[in-house]
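S1.2 Input.
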Amino acid sequence: MHQLHKMRRGVIAPYFSRGMILRLEQGVIRKTVEKLCERIEEFKASKQPLPLGTAYRAFTTDVVTEYTMAKSLNFLDRPDFNERWFNEFLENVKLVHFVTQFPWFPKFAKRLPSWLRALLLPKTAQLLEFHHVGFLHSPVPAEFAYHVYLMISISVGYRRDSYSDQKYSR
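S1.3 Output.
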């Protein structure tokens, strides 16, 4: 397993090099921090309480999606920082065990008409819409996609070639 981890780490290491992080900081992070500061000023001017936890989650989501997908979700632009999305995400994490037992369920839920999905699964509606709209199917930067492809290839090849040898070695 250590060898698999080492190979995977090697594939994504360029994304965490000093140069890439500096480039990320100078571009994406700086722009997103400025946007967060503007939103904080808006709340200050309106004298409304600032949901700081949600604002930081929105900031992080915008940075990560911009860096990995070259397309930000722009949660900082939303009036409430898209708090509903985060709440639904946390609720859906609770479904992991259910989905593990019924792996067909997510595909079934995605195929339901949106009105029926919202009625039957109100806490998953926005997340499923996120998938349905196609954000996850949008073009990913070629460099990032290539590294993900390598990581998956290494994992699949490693499992196929080594799993039977390691299965009973411990």
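S1.4 Remarks. The radius of gyration is 20 Å.
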